[in-house]
């Protein structure tokens, strides 16, 4: 955490290395990820965006990094989180948290990414439902268009379409 406060490029590299280091405890690695995100430093966000992909099957840590990224609202974070949502190798839980995190940023780029992701998810209905709800919370025009497309998509289950319709109604648009 002290390293993060310096904002120095070497500190960012060192913290990113800690997050990746499987010899460190999960607690230490999670704190390093949060510290990186807390710097607000563009290099730190880029490092976290790379780290979230490098973590592979370390799902708990990926979830923490995804949440840390979301807190930054940075464009690199948005791309990385959208990639997590699309990644079929991640658990549904990690992917849902990334979708919710994206929507929570309030970032226009995040909403556009989610609007694209909801279509990319195809037959992953549980996740489409979560993304639709996340989109609804933004109230953005791109979100409204994406939700309307889900409502019209006859390939979705009635439940997904109904939830998207309720979400759409809740946007106030």
Automatic annotation (TrEMBL):
InterPro entries reported in the protein's UniProt record: ARM-like (IPR011989), ARM-type_fold (IPR016024), PBS_lyase_HEAT (IPR004155)
A molecular-function term among this protein's GO annotations: oxidoreductase activity
Residue ranges that the Swiss-Prot or TrEMBL entry lists as coiled coil: none
Name this protein carries in UniProt: HEAT repeat domain-containing protein
């Amino acid at each position: 955490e002290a390293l993060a406060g310096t904002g120095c490029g070497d500190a960012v590299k060192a913290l990113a290395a800690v997050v990746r280091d499987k010899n460190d405890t999960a607690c230490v690695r999670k704190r390093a990820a949060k510290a990186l995100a807390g710097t607000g430093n563009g290099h730190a966000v880029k490092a976290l965006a790379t780290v979230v992909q490098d973590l592979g099957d370390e799902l708990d840590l990926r979830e923490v990094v995804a949440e840390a990224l979301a807190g930054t609202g940075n464009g690199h974070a948005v791309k990385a989180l959208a990639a997590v949502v699309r990644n079929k190798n991640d658990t549904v839980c990690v992917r849902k948290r990334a979708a919710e995190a994206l929507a929570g940023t309030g970032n226009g780029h995040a909403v556009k990414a989610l609007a694209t992701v909801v279509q990319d998810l195809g037959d992953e209905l549980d996740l489409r439902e979560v993304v639709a709800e996340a989109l609804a919370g933004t109230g953005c025009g791109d979100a409204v268009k994406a939700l309307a497309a889900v409502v019209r998509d006859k390939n979705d289950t009635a439940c997904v379409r109904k939830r998207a319709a309720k979400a759409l109604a809740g946007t106030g648009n």
